[in-house]
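G., the chain you wanted modeled:
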Amino acid sequence: MPNVANCKKCGTLFLQTSKRDICDKCFEEQNKLVNEINSYVINANEPTIFLDDLLKKFNLKIDEFESLYLAGKFVKVSQKVTMKCAKCGNIVPIANKTNMLCSACAKKLQNEI
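Predicted structure as tokens:
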């Protein structure tokens, strides 16, 4: 059953016909951004692209990127985009991380708990 909801991004009222929490306009803009990012990463000459550089280039916040990543929007490029582990500082592909930690640090942390 459709509900009226406020768009999480722009605040506009919209008819919510799915589990999506953004309006059609913001959804289209989001899909365009995802396509631009995927195209940029795939066509880049560099073997890897640092996540911080990607965020700056596309004016994204880390939580926005994380949300899109967790929604499966960057599967094609997840091995090419890298980040620093928050604990050890090693550079790892975003596909091999748990939150902001590399797999090894995440395992160590889990064992300490």
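The mean pLDDT is 88.

Shout if anything looks off.
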